[in-house]
Amino acid sequence: MAVSAREAGFSVCVLSKGGPGKSTCTGYSAGVMAGSATADQRGYHRQNTVAAGRGLNTGRLVEILVAEAPLRLNELVQWGIRGDLIDGYLYARGRPPVLGEEIVRCLLRRNEALGTCFRGHLLVADVVAGSDGLGVRAFEKSSGAWVDLTAKAVIIATGGASALYLRTDNPRTILGDGYRLALEAGAVLQDMEFVQFYPLCLSEAGTTPLVIPPRLADRGRLINDQQEDIHEKYGISERPAGEKARDLLSRALFNEIHRNGRNVYLDLRNLSEDDWRVDPFAASLRPLLSKRYAAERRLLAVAPAAHHTMGGARIDAAGATSVPGLFAAGEVAGGLHGANRMGGNALSETLVFGARAGAAAAAWVGRAEAGDPQSVVKALEDRARRWDRGTPRGAELKEHLRKTMWEDGGIMRTAEGLSRALVAVQAIQQEASEGASKLAGKELFDLIELRSAVTVAGTILEASSMRRESRGAHFREDFPDQNDAEWQGHLLVHLSPNGENVWRFEPLSKC
Questions:
Q1: Reading across the β-sheet that carries 145-151, which strands appear in turn?
Q2: Cα angle 300, 277, 295; round to 5
Q3: Which stretch of DSSP H or E encloses residue 506?
Q4: What does DSSP say about strands 221-224 and 117-119: parallel, antiparallel, or unpaired?
Q5: Which pTM was predicted?
């Protein structure tokens, strides 16, 4: 994104909630990127992407990903990434378990060489669109200062919203900021009901939900405490299930653990040397799994965790949203993955559509006429008033929200549970908006995050309530079957002039 815009000769400033390169999930990821230059592997990539999407992928975006991912992966190699290209995947060789850290280092080096500006530890509270460009207002927690910027083009690339859930393998700051920013700027969101849970995360006392490599897990046995084989019990035949059937396996584990009150274990004790080296991801985690968790001597407790958001801002092939000058790329954008995401596509998506959004934003700026940004400045000033006061309970309410979403808005959904969750979220939203305290520092930071979190949680719950079928990562116990006759299409949402969600269903035949 920043690289392609800088290469086009334009000034670029990257704002991030944390330090440069440390605000999204890339550094914490397994560092596995799908994409191959051979025709057979491209066909396999396309086929698996569409199969995972359960009929809702945006075809044009899929074709772009399959065609351009090899080019973007080769760029990383040219820029000096430490990694291995094997069977249509690039495996980054970072520091276990944060293998994706090597991707971040590579991209930072490239941006530093190009002179990209980075400003870290800024939480963006508002993005506004005016007749002469866009404006961004951000809060700096350490100084308590507000920072206002104007630009001809803005790209939102803030990741997803998996930290809305109690169990997640994402950083706790991934709360859907970009979805709220895009929605309030006037963009259309789509497919927000589709939230992916990774089924095979460590669930040991006192540990974080570490992702177990899907191919490694397939070499072992997945059993409950009654010694029943989970794959057999639930009829899950796709392999590796942790890559190709995350939705089915997550539901199976959720049912075993949270409905049946059983533990689920991964047995890696009898793996051979070749099993441990099934791919670089598995091999890299062997020392950690063996030494810290004794995986070669005992069973590992596993459970699902929120992992990826398939929905997001509706974009065209260049990453443009419905707002002139506003672009989106990566997990904050919707359409590519449909109802579920194939493993390995998340990082490839950021590379492919980040490059496209950066180039398109540069082209947009090149065509834009010089203007007076006063309308944008005025809009930022108007937005500033809503951050004057709020609840000091932001951190506490975020935890309440996470529990609510996990219990009633997560892996297995019902009309009753979704309605209950919506009532709870609306109560949190009301407290967040009506608090009378004058806030600063961490309390204000928490409030800004909370308002994004409840807005996005509400859209997920509303969309989930409306889609009366089960498809991909969205499972309704009261509507357990996929219903193509009525629901093969997208739920779209935008804001009305008075700030209310306006929904419509768009059949795939009309997209």
A1: 123-130, 133-140, 145-151
A2: 20
A3: strand 501-507
A4: unpaired
A5: 0.96
* Strands of 32-34's sheet in order across: 32-34, 89-92, 83-86
Helices (H) and strands (E) in the chain, counts: 17, 21
* Residue reference for tokens 């080019």: 71
d(CA 369, CA 340): 41
The token pair at 408 is 């009633």
Q: Which of 499, 449, 500, 467 is nearest to 164 (CA)?
A: 449
* Domains in the chain: ranges and CATH: 200-305 (3.90.700.10), 383-510 (1.20.58.100)
Question: Which residue's entry shows tokens 């990383």?
Answer: 76
The Cα–Cα gap between 295 and 292 comes to 8
User: pLDDT band for position 236 (50/70/90)?
Assistant: very high
Burial grade of 494 (CB within 10 A; 0-12, 13-18, 19 or more): middle
**Separation between Cα atoms, residue 400 and residue 408, nearest integer Å:** 12
Is the separation of the CB atoms in 428 and 454 below 8 Å?
Answer: yes
Q: How many C-beta atoms surround the C-beta of residue 313 within 10 A?
A: 28
Helix pair 59-78, 345-367: axis angle to 10 deg: 90
Locus of tokens 């849970």:
197
Distance CA 175, CA 178 (A): 9
Q: Which residues contact 267 (CB under 8 A, 6 or more apart)?
A: 220, 221, 222, 223, 299, 300
Token couple for 62 = 């899929």
486 Cβ neighbours under 8 A, 6+ residues apart: 468, 469
Contact 444, 437 (CB under 8 A): no
CB distance 190 to 309 below 8 Å: no
User: How many C-beta atoms lie closer than 10 Å to residue 11's C-beta?
Assistant: 11
CA separation for the pair 159, 333 (Å, rounded): 9
Among candidate residues 190, 81, 42, the one with its CA nearest the CA of residue 511: 190
Q: How far is residue 208's CA from residue 307's CA, in Å, rounded to a whole number? A: 13
Q: 161: which 2 tokens?
A: 């919203």
**Structural contact between residues 162 and 174, judged by C-beta atoms closer than 8 angstroms:** yes
Nearest residue to 14 (alpha-carbon basis) of 98, 115, 94, 105? 115
3-class DSSP state for residue 108? helix
In angstroms, rounded to a whole number, what is the distance separating the alpha carbons of residues 147 and 17?
13
- % of the chain with per-residue pLDDT over 70: 99
Separation of alpha carbons 370 and 337, rounded Å: 38
Question: What CA–CA distances, in Å, run from 320 to 149, 353, 375?
Answer: 20, 10, 22
Hey, what are 50's tokens? 């569409």
Arithmetic mean of pLDDT, 9-24 = 91
141-200 pLDDT, tens digit each: 889 999 999 999 999 999 999 999 999 999 999 999 999 999 999 999 999 999 999 999
